[in-house]
Amino acid sequence: MKYKRILLKLSGESLMGGQQYGISEQMLTMYCEEIKKVHQKGVQIAIVIGGGNIYRGLSGSAKGMDRVQGDYMGMLATMINSLALQGELERQGVSTKLLGGLTIEPFCESFSRKKAIENLQANKVVIIGGGTGNPFFTTDTASTLRAIEIKADVILKGTRVDGVYTADPEKYPEATKYEKLSFDEALSKKLKVMDLTAFALCQENNLPIYVFDMNKEGNLQKVVEGESIGTLVS
């Protein structure tokens, strides 16, 4: 295995599947099956998932809602997705621990680096909900912060696109894919790998980001084994 300890970043929207809103049971099952396969290989896995399939703080504030209030609603949306992941992983026989930037009794303890690492070493998948627990920070930033804290080898950013392209491949079919990029190249070319706060944290802490298509069966395992199927930013 190329990576021994990973932080898997998933978007909330990816859980919608073909729906307009909410959680597709089919997508949830598929994602958890992929995670289970990699977990069975002995890889330590932490997961951060967004909440955009349920609520986005930014879109709320664009419509006149208080930004702080909207961001807390977004954090609760990530908790719903985290609970869904936990429930399905446990149903498939994978032991988990849910920690959060927000403490919500009785199902979620507050995140600490020590707790997260202890659970990873005890062969549990650690799901981290609630973002950073602070408004104005995205789940991109939360995933980067948690990856640095737990000393992950890499952030694996699972998307519906198979890497980073010169332009949006869904809009521009002629766009070409990068196999490797430096942080400086990604910044100078204004490629949206993650938001700027998250990206700066990765660069400062020399934490690589691997962008790949999570919706294709077997891809997560291929990435962990070192197969080049996406884009490495380092």
Structure description:
This protein is α/β, with parallel strands linked by helices. It has one domain: Acetylglutamate kinase-like (Carbamate kinase, 3-Layer(aba) Sandwich). Helices cover 38% and strands 19% of the residues. The protein contains eight helices and eleven strands. It has helices at residues 25-40, 57-62, 67-91, 113-121, 139-149, 183-188, 196-204, 219-224; strands spanning 5-10, 44-49, 96-100, 109-110, 125-129, 154-159, 164-165, 177-178, 180-181, 209-213, 231-233. Helix 1 (25-40) links the parallel strand 1 (5-10) and strand 2 (44-49). Helix 1 crosses helix 3 and helix 5 packs parallel to helix 7. The longest helix has 25 residues, at 67-91. It starts with a strand and ends with a strand. The model has no long low-confidence stretch (mean pLDDT 94).
Q: How would you summarize what this structure contains?
A:
With 234 residues, the protein is of the alpha/beta class. Helix content is 38%, strand content 19%.
Write the layout of secondary structure elements.
Layout: E1 5-10, H1 25-40, E2 44-49, H2 57-62, H3 67-91, E3 96-100, E4 109-110, H4 113-121, E5 125-129, H5 139-149, E6 154-159, E7 164-165, E8 177-178, E9 180-181, H6 183-188, H7 196-204, E10 209-213, H8 219-224, E11 231-233
Parallel strand pairs: 1-2, 1-6, 2-5, 3-4, 3-5, 6-10, 9-11
Antiparallel strand pairs: 7-8, 10-11
